[in-house]
Design a protein that fits this description.
The protein is an alpha/beta fold. It has 2 domains: 9-184, NAD(P)-binding Rossmann-like Domain (Rossmann fold, 3-Layer(aba) Sandwich), CATH 3.40.50; 187-328, N-(1-d-carboxylethyl)-l-norvaline Dehydrogenase, domain 2 (Orthogonal Bundle), CATH 1.10.1040.10. Helix content is 48%, strand content 11%. It has 16 helices and 8 strands. It has helices at 17-28, 40-49, 70-74, 89-96, 121-128, 145-148, 163-173, 186-208, 214-234, 239-242, 245-254, 261-270, 275-282, 287-301, 307-317, 324-328, and strands at 9-13, 32-36, 65-67, 79-82, 105-108, 136-140, 154-159, 178-183. The protein has an 8-stranded mixed beta sheet with strand order 3-2-1-4-5-6-7-8, with helices on both faces. α8 runs antiparallel to α9 and α8 (186-208) runs parallel beside α12 (261-270). The longest helix has 23 residues, at 186-208. The N and C termini lie far apart (63 Å).
Length: 341
């Protein structure tokens, strides 16, 4: 990327569901957009057929440029949107490092924590690309990409450390059907995005179990949000962030809907399916699966008790059985409340 850049060109890295929907939305609003994809077959289908394998009902605009050449994708961009699973963020950062102009706005859509470093996507980008500190932001909040591409009004939150950068990025991204708020609490917003994927799995497990219902679901959502608040504030996030779009809003959405891949994954486990089999059936990335491991490590590192996260780790990684989620909530296996002394 060069400093003398076309201020209308936006690069989107990753032609998954969110990356494709965001790229198409921007292109439909007249932006010059280049969508980069690692897999040639996916890029080829988008270019030749104007559709995405996982979005058959979305007709992509002909104004959208698609490439597998990452250098060409980044050339003369004013904004780079990172739309890859969190486990691939470091690899992508290293790929673009030599082409990256730190004056460009970087926006992450990745919701997860790197297992090895326990860093958020923005922190990984900062570590790999010197000088990026004030130019990397997170766009998060309660949003299903499939609804955005249908024009469903959607409110999201853009968080970063530089107010001028946030305002400029919002000006570019605040397009119908999106309504974007801004926040200086990048840490809290990123943690909320990662944590809600974890708890959405638990909510799905509750849905899949026999003899549970809306009462149980409400209890789980409440306990989950309290646990999220405790973790986020301990790690430096602001209390008000936990009451906003990126935590409460996103948890309400992904923790109650079968449109959520994490919820679907959990529901299959609640019905008795092994975690690895459930992952295979979901096909696309289940960010919460790896985030459970990351969050369990992080909670132990900061010495905070998070019984729901600990129990989800046991269910997903030690095959302890889905009924353990009820025990973590204070119920016994058949749903009867334990006596509290």
């Amino acid at each position: 990327m060069t400093k003398s850049r076309n201020k209308h060109k936006i690069t989107v890295l990753g032609a998954g569901i969110w990356g494709t929907v965001m790229a198409n939305l921007l292109a439909c609003h007249g932006r010059k957009v280049c969508l980069w994809e690692f897999f040639k077959d996916v890029a080829g289908k988008i270019k030749s057929e104007g559709t995405h394998p996982d979005l058959p009902d979305l007709n992509l605009t002909s104004r959208l440029s698609v490439t597998t050449d990452i250098k060409a994708a980044l050339e003369n961009s004013c904004m780079c949107i990172i739309a890859v699973p969190s486990k691939h963020v470091r690899k992508i950062a290293r790929k673009i490092k030599k082409y990256a102009d730190p004056s460009v706005l970087f926006v992450s859509l990745s919701k997860g924590i790197e297992t090895s470093s326990l860093k958020t996507a923005c922190e990984v980008m900062e570590e790999e690309i010197p000088g990026l500190r004030d130019r990397i932001m997170i766009l998060s909040g309660p949003s299903f990409a499939a609804e955005v591409c249908k024009g469903v009004p959607t409110q999201m939150i853009l968080a970063g450390k530089n107010m001028n950068g946030l305002l400029e990025a919002r000006r570019i991204l605040n397009l119908h059907p999106l309504r974007i708020e801004i926040s200086p609490d990048r840490k809290g917003v990123e943690l909320g995005g990662a944590l809600k994927n974890v708890y959405a799995i638990g909510s799905g497990i509750i849905e899949g179990l026999k003899n549970t219902g809306k009462n149980t679901e409400a209890a789980f959502l409440t306990q989950s949000m309290l646990e999220m608040h405790k973790i986020i504030t301990r790690l430096g996030g602001k209390p008000e962030t936990t009451r906003g779009l990126s935590v409460t809003g996103d948890m309400i959405l992904t923790g109650t809907s079968r449109k959520s891949r994490n919820f679907q994954f959990g529901e299959k486990i609640g019905r008795g399916m092994k975690p690895e089999t459930a992952r295979t059936e979901i096909k696309t990335a289940v960010e919460g699966f790896e985030s459970v491991l990351s969050m369990k490590k992080l909670c132990r590192e900061i010495k905070i008790k998070a019984p729901i996260i600990e129990t989800l780790w046991e269910i997903l990684y030690t095959n302890s059985g889905p009924l353990r989620i009820l025990e973590a909530m204070g119920f016994n296996a058949n749903g009867a409340k334990k006596s509290r002394k």
